[in-house]
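Project outcomes to date are best conveyed with an example. Our students and postdoctoral researchers have been running inverse folding experiments weekly, and each run begins with a structure described purely in tokens. The record below, which covers 173 residues, was selected by the lab manager from last quarter's runs and is presented without edits.
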């Protein structure tokens, strides 16, 4: 396993910027953007996991499917049981975002009408699950960085930033 911390850090920093946008969009009550941007942040965090484990992938919008395959292949990834459990939690919560598909960007067609994201995600209740799943992913992700990869906040500043952002998201209930 050849870990690529530099690439992982880039993905994480991009996800952090997206999470900051989520918080800003929450304050503006731009719920459709919260849905899209939180989906994008989770995708980037998952891509960082691949870099941390030294797994090269092509472009994908469904990284949890690849993570599932990697977990099933014992030879591809040698990890302890706790790390496996954390990745499974990340996969489960990521699937929520992936199942949204392009609905967060383009809406959906119902009969002869298009329902745009602004109609689908028009209240806090509509995006509550986005926030809850994002918080869980961030929480587990910071544990993964600290305990599996033995990274400290000093070595990987983004751990502390992610924890702070998780706290900010927790204020939205």
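After processing, the design step wrote out the following sequence:
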């Amino acid at each position: 396993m050849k870990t690529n911390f530099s690439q992982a850090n880039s993905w994480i920093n991009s996800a952090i910027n997206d999470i900051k946008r989520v918080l800003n969009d929450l304050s503006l009550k731009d719920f459709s953007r919260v849905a899209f941007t939180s989906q994008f942040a989770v995708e980037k965090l998952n891509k960082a996991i691949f870099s941390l484990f030294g797994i090269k992938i092509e472009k994908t919008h469904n990284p949890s499917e690849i993570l599932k395959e990697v977990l099933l292949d014992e030879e591809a990834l040698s990890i302890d049981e706790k790390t496996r459990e954390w990745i499974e939690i990340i996969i489960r919560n990521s699937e929520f975002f992936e199942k949204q598909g392009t609905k967060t960007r383009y809406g959906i067609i119902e009969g002869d009408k298009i329902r745009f994201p602004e109609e689908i995600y028009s209240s806090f209740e509509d995006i509550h699950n986005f926030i809850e799943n994002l918080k869980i992913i961030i929480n587990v992700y910071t544990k993964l960085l600290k305990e599996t990869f033995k990274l400290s906040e000093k070595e990987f500043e983004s751990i502390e930033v992610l924890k702070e952002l998780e706290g900010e998201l927790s204020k939205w209930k």
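The radius of gyration is 16 Å. The chain has one domain: 5-170. The training component of this project remains on track.
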